[in-house]
Amino acid sequence: MMERMARKPVAREAVLDAFESLLIEEGERAATLDAVARLAGVSKGGLLYHFPNKEAMISVLLERLDRLLAEDLAAMAAAPEGAAAFFIKSSVWADTPLDRVFVAATRLAEVAHQETLRRMAAVQASWLELLAADVGPAMAKPVLYMGDGLYFNAMLARGPGGPDPEVGADVESLLTALGRLRG
Amino acid sequence: MMERMARKPVAREAVLDAFESLLIEEGERAATLDAVARLAGVSKGGLLYHFPNKEAMISVLLERLDRLLAEDLAAMAAAPEGAAAFFIKSSVWADTPLDRVFVAATRLAEVAHQETLRRMAAVQASWLELLAADVGPAMAKPVLYMGDGLYFNAMLARGPGGPDPEVGADVESLLTALGRLRG
DNA sequence: TTAACTGTACCGTCTGGACGGTACAGTTAG
DNA sequence: CTAACTGTACCGTCCAGACGGTACAGTTAA
């Protein structure tokens, strides 16, 4: 098979990972092109070779989000414990690839990045649909909001290198609550 | 009564309100000193006359938050429908002074502003305490998270001049859910 | 087989603008 | 007279992005 590329673009993935990390750990303001290039171990020129501008970097990150989210939605729909329980459990930070892109995207949404906001809204709608199929349309929003609230609080709790709080007990109480909502 | 000031510092409140508005509607990055001064109808020199630096502006905004929050907590504790129902109802965006400072503070927390993060954590703890007194310690977190999730989603839904979604139905379903959690 | 060439994957530097903040001289109004 | 401003000019830093290179893998043609 012929190789179209002279060398493998190792920098490209490294840059994307670095961008994601900076968004997660230090917020959008810290995720400058210079900082991303530095963390990725790439020169700024090299970064801009792969991503002509910052917007392009964001857009590729959102593609990564879409891809991982599609997998997650499939798993949620097929979860034996039910979509709602799956959703609650997966609302806790576990440092999975999906968690990482999702939080990174949240950082962008926070600074009112339009395209990101649109995608996040679509994501919420998808989740709501699956939840409604599981717990009924009336209780879908309460469940969605419980999960989102868990996420929200975990995000607020992040300091610089802050230890992730013991959310295990929280998940337990949310699952108990879920049982009551199911009635 | 003697007037110590030659004129009333009208600019001061105007600046603070403008800062708040910019944080809410356009995010932290847009809330630059120049932008704040412009929106407040004040010169940049005038702004810096009252607030020697940006940090000072933030700190006065957080004082405003503390003040309004203390009132809200008192109302929540005394609410006839119960603290939890009061909390859910007040988790919806109503453009009250408290809503405004709170969302503004959230924007600062989002960019990892340390002092803001500390205050927000304290706020959550206060709410949790009152909720636990109302619905019991086991169901306090689920209720807290439902309210936070509502807030979180409202924030994500904000576009430029985006119409606030019909959250009335959401509140209804959350109150229904609250009833089941109590039962 | 090898020299000439092509395209990809980078590197390092520079520029123009924005931002936070300083300084300070003047103006208005109680 | 003094507090509350306005307005402008400026500084240092940081940032997005442009630009001109370099290194080298693969391709082509003599």
Rg of chain A (CA only): 18 Å
- Strand runs of chain A, count: 0
Termini separation of chain A comes to 59 Å
Instruction: Give the averaged pLDDT of chain A, no decimals.
Output: 89
Oligomer: homodimer
Strand content of chain A: under 5%
Unreliable residue runs of chain A: 1-5
Order of helices and strands of chain A: HHHHHHHHH
The portion of residues assigned to helices of chain A is: over 70%
Biggest interface, which chains? A-B, 41 and 42 residues
What does this structure look like?
- The structure is a homodimer of 183-residue chains.
- Chain A is mainly alpha-helical and 183 residues long.
- The first copy, chain A, has 2 domains: 1-52, Arc Repressor Mutant, subunit A, CATH 1.10.10; 61-182.
- Chain A has helices at 10-26, 33-40, 44-50, 54-78, 83-90, 97-110, 114-135, 137-157, 168-182.
- In chain A, helix 1 (10-26) crosses helix 2 (33-40), helix 1 packs across helix 6 (97-110) and helix 6 (97-110) packs across helix 7.
- The A-B interface holds A 26-29, 107, 109-112, 114, 117, 120-121, 124, 138-139, 141-142, 144-153, 156-160, 170, 173-174, 176-177, 180-181, 183 and B 26-30, 107, 109-112, 114, 117, 120-121, 124, 138-139, 141-142, 144-153, 156-160, 170, 173-174, 176-177, 180-181, 183.
- The structure holds a DNA duplex (30 and 30 nucleotides).
